[in-house]
Amino acid sequence: MMIKTINFSAQGYSHVDNNKPCQDYSLSYQDNERAIIAVADGHGGATYIRSQFGSKYACEAILDEFRELDVSQIKKNKKSELEDKIKISLLCRWNEYIEKHFAQNKFRKKELEKLDEDQIFGLKTNFTKAYGTTMAGAMQIGKYYLIVSLGDTEVMGINSKTASPIFDTSDDPAGNITYSLCQEDAFRYIRVKICKKNEYKGILLCTDGLCGPYHDYKNFNESFVKPTLISLSKGNDSELEQIIKTLASRAGNGDDVSIGLLIQHK
Amino acid sequence: MKQLEGIKQEIQHLLIAIDTSKRISSQIIENIRKNLTNYLNSLSVKDSKYRLVFFDRSSIKDTRTSSFLLAMSDYLNKESNGGQMPDFRNRPPLIVYLSDKTTQFPFFKIQLNQLRNRWWFRASNKFGIAIGDNPNTSIMLRTIVTNKGKILRTNLYELDSLLNMIVKMTFVNKNQTRKCLDSYLFISEGGT
């Protein structure tokens, strides 16, 4: 069995129109031992003035964390203990990254000029809010998948050309509200799953800029997942990149679009 | 690119609850529905797809406030859970709750808690319109639309123009930038 990883991110048209940077970030990594994908969606609200960095550091924190884990740790440790360790470690890594970034780049006047007094006061007392982001990551290592998620970044398991949510999302926030890494109680909402590789043929991570325009899981599967998997099985990776770009630049809802895919193939 | 064919336009859900006592006749309720529907059709909202849903005596087939709240709560559930709202992010709905009643909180406590647990309700823009002068109506509406909602007071003569104004504002204000969950939300919405 071979493993294939793909990731694409593209800036949404509303961000281009409003002179905002691409607040999504995605990455993929592969070596002989493991395959990793990560996707993060920085918040778009006015106060999250550095969410493009927040999402980048979230993906890097996932990559760092996953690269340090090995199969023996998964086998040795109690599942719940390992899950808690991963949650804490991810939060620490992300906070370290943004603290370092903030220490070297204090808020500039230009960044704060569109905010009101309350928002500026809020950021000055708690700078982490400026970096607010969601995150999701998946790693295949040995016979296992290790999956993490926080917020409304979609995490789906692929089986026979359909994708279904890995975590129970029925009670998750909706609309424009989401859990975030910048929350003080983020630990409570990070979800971790460790499962056997044969449970899923692949993992799909995407931001809501991608799945949002499809409205519901059923339509997303029929219209996007199925044809994409068929196209990828024919080795047509560039088509997916083109779709992501088209969705972001005109066909979608204007939000940034990101995808991370990890697929097993013969 | 087959994948782009399945894309749906964003829908603005406009939920108008007309939970009034029998003092307000069915004919008046019907006029409110007609006027708002006509006004929406006359608006130039070609870029926005909307779904206007009325909750009133005829559609709920009940006159209790608890039944209105239950119907709204069913509607605001995600599609994959049997509701009418999208599973993924979309524009937050607009909820306008009209009433001249003075029902007290304990009589709809369970149904209100269920409604408050719907994330689409929390994300929505909420307005409570009190018809008439009774201050207890505002108290009841405040409980329903929570501290995040706006309460307005009007009479039957000016009700149509007020509704039109709120609806028009919804289409002008398309802001749906994301915000992170503030733990304070639970505290402010949890109380009565």
Structure description:
The complex is a heterodimer of chains A (266) and B (192). Helix content of chain A is 41%, strand content 26%. By secondary structure, chain A is α+β, with helices and mostly antiparallel strands. In chain A, the strands form 2 sheets. A 5-stranded antiparallel beta sheet of chain A has the order 1-11-10-6-7. In chain A, strands 2-3-4-5-9 form a 5-stranded antiparallel beta sheet. Chain A is globular. Chain B is of the alpha/beta class and 192 residues long. In chain B, α1 (26-42) runs parallel beside α7 (159-172) and α3 (65-75) runs parallel beside α4 (109-116). The termini of chain B are far apart. The interface between A and B is large, with 53 and 35 residues.
Quick summary:
Chain A is about 40% helix and about 25% strand. Chain A is of the alpha+beta class and about 270 residues long. By secondary structure, chain B is α/β, with parallel strands linked by helices.
Q: Main attributes?
A:
heterodimer, A: 266 residues, alpha+beta, five-stranded antiparallel sheet, 26% strand, B: 192 residues, 8 helices, 6 strands
The radius of gyration of chain A is: 18 Å
> Which shape of chain A, going by the Cα principal axes?
globular
Major β-sheet annotation of chain B: 5 strands, parallel
Strand arrangement, major sheet of chain B: 2-1-3-4-5
SS summary, helix count of chain A: 10
Q: Biggest sheet of chain A, in brief?
A: 5 strands, antiparallel
Poorly predicted runs of chain A are none
The strand count of chain A comes to: 11
Major sheet strand order of chain A = 1-11-10-6-7
Sheet-strand content of chain A, in percent, reads 25-35%
Give the quaternary arrangement of the chains. Answer: heterodimer
Report the average pLDDT across residues of chain A.
92
**Total of DSSP H or I helical runs spanning 4+ residues of chain B:** 8
Counting helices, strands and paired strands, the structural category of chain B is alpha/beta
Report the portion of residues of chain B in β strands: 15-25%
Order of helices and strands of chain A: EHEEHHHHHEEEEEHEEHHHE
